[in-house]
Amino acid sequence: MQVILKQDVSKLGFKNDVVKVRPGYGRNFLIPRGVATLATDGNLKALTEVKKQQSFKEEKLRKEATANAEKLTGLELKVGAKVGESGKIFGSVTSIQVADALKKAGFDIERKNIEINGEAIKQVGSYTAKVRLFKEIASTINFEVVAE
Known about the structure:
Blueprint: E1 2-5, E2 18-20, H1 23-30, E3 36-38, H2 41-73, E4 76-81, E5 88-93, H3 95-104, E6 114-116, E7 121-123, E8 125-132, E9 138-147
Parallel strand pairs: 4-9
Antiparallel strand pairs: 1-2, 1-3, 5-7, 6-8, 8-9
């Protein structure tokens, strides 16, 4: 079964992609939730028109994302967290705190586009995260968790 995605779906595809999925997944999950539509002839023709119009906008966004990726490569972030006496963090540092630190540094990146490498961060130290800026454009940032 082929469907047209209406929004980005992790590990499946991006918005306006035509993907092949199992019939049950398409009928029972993607289509009822409004995430995808059936890839009929009429919908595919409409999709080609939409893609023509969006190609110019995507090129502009791609250039902007590559420029931001270069800026993010050398960036060192400091994320503050409440820490106990032994250096252990109360709770854990998540992508929300990393997104806030990036916002303070001048980069407006949504938290869903930030993937922290490894397990949950529960200690003070240096870590890395992968930031997805555009479809295939990603950058790796280094950040340090410090005590507040």
